[in-house]
Write a structure and sequence with these properties.
There is one protein chain. The chain has two domains: 242 residues, Rossmann fold (3-Layer(aba) Sandwich), CATH 3.40.50; 178 residues, Glycogen Phosphorylase B (Rossmann fold). 39% of the residues lie in helices and 16% in strands. The strands form two sheets. The protein has a seven-stranded parallel sheet with strand order 3-2-1-4-5-6-7, sandwiched between helices. A six-stranded parallel sheet has the order 10-9-8-11-12-13, sandwiched between helices. Helix 1 crosses helix 16, helix 5 crosses helix 6 and helix 8 crosses helix 14. The radius of gyration is 22 Å and the shape is globular.
């Protein structure tokens, strides 16, 4: 069986969306003749843990863990963990202290605070790659420092076959603007990115827009494999409930806030007594408190929010069984046009109605059209009457919006891993 080394900052027992993609690839790679070996930090700076995820790993998988030191530790000792945002989640808060930490993070640690892990990890991996006869490696970012590990290894071992996997953009990620980058810092991001994508044998990404961006930036070879859903996760039976549950699972911040949606829900509650009595809004994950307060400012919605906090992936799947209507929120920004949230594919797999909000002309909007799902809306310019009609149709069981099994199958993690194995085979 051929070996592939996967270098990822996020790995079980860490939880969160950054884990799922390569965890699921690793689960199915052995079926297609590839033995995954994983390199990940021994002590990552992470507040989210999900012990159940390790059950998806292949038997006897080799995981190489090397210690990491991160500058956030100093910040925590002086100011405490809650004084500002931590590992990359951007909020709308604009306190002086918060802006200061963003500026430090953006200009002193390029591309990210994991940069200090690069040199010691390259040194250790060089010997292990040689002694284990590894010919293929994958780096996945963000954090994009993982790609700098791949770049250094590629320069030391020219015949090494390297896939640089971008789950998000790098220099074109508009959230970089939150870090008040100097011109020299921004140029350094761009220079490092070009060096990575020109030296990687394959620049892999998750959407059509980002594929085109990397081609324009000069990638030697660019490919797309989207995220997906694992059929093994969707064996549950729907749970009966008297509530009409609108569920969102993941980050909600100032770039993912459907203001008109909350307003329309409030109007529907005041117009329809049954809807008002049955509505619940379930929110799980990192939710900006300002948005919670905004929703509660509507008199009819004040007591409708169920804030679930952080849930393990197993708990999320359990909650899916109760949901009546999924809420999908895509970053309302330029780079958000290429954003396929991982949760989107899981919502597909749950085979329930989905209501999506995102920027106009996004890849997600095009996919919804291709799948004949007519429930994608622009945040700022939408048909309010149509949106209200769709919500009430779902409430009254008049709309299902299910995707055909054939179309759904191409998003299964197993089929996506088959495509990955074929890419790896082309590099032999």
């Amino acid at each position: 069986m051929k070996k592939v080394l996967i270098i990822s900052y996020y790995w079980p027992p860490s939880g969160g969306s950054g884990v799922q993609r390569w965890l699921k690839f690793s689960k199915y790679l052995p079926k297609y003749g590839w033995k995954p070996i994983v390199c990940t930090p021994e002590n990552p700076y992470n507040e989210l843990f999900d012990l159940e995820l390790s059950k998806d790993l292949p038997d006897n998988i080799n995981i190489w863990k090397f210690p990491i030191w991160e500058p956030y530790i100093i910040k925590d000792k002086i100011f405490g963990k809650n004084s500002t945002q931590t590992s990359g989640i951007i909020s709308s808060k604009s306190s002086v202290l918060n802006r200061f930490f963003k500026w430090i993070r953006g200009n002193f640690f390029v591309p990210d605070p994991k940069i200090l892990w690069v040199k010691p990890t390259v040194k250790k991996l060089y010997q292990k790659i040689k002694s284990n006869n590894i010919e293929h490696i994958v780096t996945t970012g963000p954090p994009h420092s993982m790609h700098l590990i791949g770049l250094s290894l590629k320069k030391k071992i020219p015949n090494l076959k390297w896939i640089a996997d971008f789950r998000d953009p790098w220099s074109k990620l508009d959230l970089l603007d939150e870090f008040s980058l100097s011109e020299s810092s921004r140029r350094r991001h761009e220079r490092l990115e070009r060096d990575v994508i020109k030296n990687a044998d394959i620049t892999l990404t998750v959407s059509e827009s980002w594929y085109e961006d990397f081609k324009i930036l000069g990638a030697a070879r660019t490919e797309i494999i989207t995220n997906g859903f694992d059929k093994d996760d969707f064996t549950f039976q729907d749970k009966s409930t008297k509530k009409f549950i609108i569920g969102h699972y993941g980050l909600i911040n100032h770039l993912r806030n459907p203001k008109l949606f909350w307003e329309i829900l409030d109007k529907l509650c005041r117009k329809y007594n049954d809807f008002n009595n049955q509505l619940e809004i379930h929110l799980a994950g990192n939710i900006d408190k300002a948005i919670i307060n905004e929703i509660k400012s509507y008199s009819s919605l004040h007591d409708k929010i169920i804030n679930l906090g952080y849930l393990s992936h197993k708990e999320v799947l359990n909650h899916y069984s109760y949901v009546s209507l999924f809420l999908l929120l895509i970053f309302n920004s330029d780079s958000g046009k290429g954003n396929y949230p991982g949760k989107m594919f899981e919502y597909f797999g749950a085979r329930k109605p989905i209501l999506a909000f995102g920027p106009e002309g996004s890849d997600a909007e095009n996919l919804f059209k291709d799948l004949n799902l007519k429930t994608y809306f622009n945040y700022n310019h939408l048909d309010e009457a149509l949106l209200a009609e769709i919500i009430m149709d779902v409430f009254n069981n008049k709309r299902s919006n299910l995707i055909s099994s054939d179309r759904l199958d191409c998003f299964s993690r197993e089929k996506l891993t088959y495509r990955l194995s074929n890419l790896l085979n082309t590099l032999n």
